[in-house]
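Hey everyone, long-time lurker, first post.

I ran two proteins through the pipeline my lab uses and got sequence/structure pairs for each. Pasting them in order. The first:
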Amino acid sequence: MQYYSLHNASVTASFRTATIQGQAPDKGLYFPESIPAFPDDLIRHIDRYSREEIAFSVIRPYVGEDIPETELQRIIGETIHFDFPLVPVTDTISVLELFHGPTLAFKDVGARFMSRCLGHFVRDGVVAAGRGVTVLVATSGDTGGAVANGFYDVDGVNVVILYPSGKVSSVQELQLTTLGKNISALEVSGSFDDCQRMVKQAFADPELNRRLFLTSANSINVARWLPQQFYYLFAYQQWPEKDRPPVISVPSGNFGNICAGLLAHRSGLPVRHFIAACNANNVVPSYLQTGRYQARTAIPTLSNAMDVGDPSNFVRILELFHKEFDALTNVLTSYSISDEETRATIRELLANHHYLADPHGAVGYLALARYLDEQGSAGGEQLKGICLETAHPVKFYDVVEPITGEKIPLPESVQSLIGRKKQSTRVEADYSQLKDFLLG
């Protein structure tokens, strides 16, 4: 499989090169030259396959010969070594829980897969002789912890994570600032968009790139983005009504997760419709209503991991639909959910359905419920759907507990963080300070 830059289709790379570089030399995102179709038997008889077999079948065409089959199977086994349960909540809505990994967030899959691919390439000597890799990543919350955990103590790889000061939850901050060793955290006095801007400036800096081998672990990296397809097939494997494909609602910030779902759908996964569930940062809902895309400054919300004013991966979604607006809107609907609606949904789910959602999952649930209510039944049958619960509620206990009035029991992985010393470096939203840190 070859990948081309979305800035210039003549700029191409293998999976290995695209993973190591993160972005194309012209700073465009990489996109696969072709979309492989899933084997018919995989979809028709998905109940007969193990999760490892499903994941291998999905990702193998994208990796090609860049990773040997046995090594790829090992990487997959380590990537998905936890549960992905589909939990019925109402008669029409089920929740796919993606928070059973080591950092209690859906991003564990992409971060673990990418870290192991990059570690393989470093061990194989494909990085320039004598040069390690510096992974540079901006996070609005969950990416930081997942990347820190996934890359922790990987030989030849140093990780620098930028996060907005005071705009991630206390658990998220502990997950990305307490590991040490090859993980460095920069606490930026600014927004996630400031962090992302600084990272983009670093990748565009010729002097810095001559002195360091930089790559990204955000979902712009194909090795972070592509394995997110796994969730959607795991959901379909558990879906009880295979003859009635689900509507799927995805809490969306940088739009890598839902883009992976749309990619899986293009490859043959049965999905009736997709919902991009957004908070007050409504760039995409506005675009789908008006046809005009206008980036904005991010607005802080309760669902902070989705506080993105210019989602990087939306350009990939446009490419997937050949920039045809009508084709996109036939498959994708988007809603903007307010903080007050988020609070009300968390209360309602707990009181009426005994289900505790995190703020992002609550946004996804309400967006799906709204769509199902608007659409009514199709062909005389009630539409049903799946919303993705992307993080454990405990990661946002300081938001959720005041809403519910109840304490959230601490999972073991969080208990182990309590009392650890935060290790971070405060910087302004100033690229020169990031550059000085990297070179120092």
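...and the second, right after it:
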Amino acid sequence: MSERIAKFIARSGVCSRRAAEELIMQKRVTVNGETVLSPAFNVDGSEKILIDGEKLPTIEQTRLWIYYKPVGLITSHKDASRPTVFDNLPSNMPRVISVGRLDLNSEGLLLLTNDGELSRMLELPQNGWSRRYKVKVHGIISQQKIDSVSNGVTIEGVNYGPVKITIDSTQGTNTWLTITLTEGKNREIRRLMQYIGLDVARLIRLSYGPFQLGSLKKGEVKEVPHKVLKEQLGGKFEL
């Protein structure tokens, strides 16, 4: 069965489908010696497919890992000046890509997969999967402030959807919140908190859809059993 070459490349775990499309437009992908000019080009896997002259990895069974990302690592494969998530994974891990990102100063659950197509699917907002965070903020908090962003708000031209915010504990001007959202736009929680006059002191992602951080410690990683992965994805993704 044939499929678009960008999807085929993504399933090999080299990169996401979007990144594969960019490689194709940069004329860095060849099939049987011919440069591919369109991401719509179809392949069936029997071809000799090269990126920058290098053969694609063999497509393996789709796998997913839960990683506790510590503060101080960036979610990028290459950065000459700062340590990355991928530099700090166990040596027995295969090549993986992340499902979304956590910024430098955030910690907690980061999903990793060897399948770029799965990564793309899990990131889609229409799946409606919530992300839950434990957030320590500094400042004067009130229910009125929380309500001002709970139903969605526009900040500097960016529309943020509804979020669920609950107050867990308060000591002086320090408060722990649980924040649940479904979009997960870039630095969304930090921008929402800044909008209502609060500084984020610590941000920990606890869950992404049905996948939980649980008792993992910083820097630890565990694989989601294939059976569990199949159960959780249902008919959304073909494993």
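Reply from user beta_strand_b:
Welcome! Quick read of the second one: Residues 190 and 200 are 6 Å apart (CA to CA). The longest helix spans residues 17-25.
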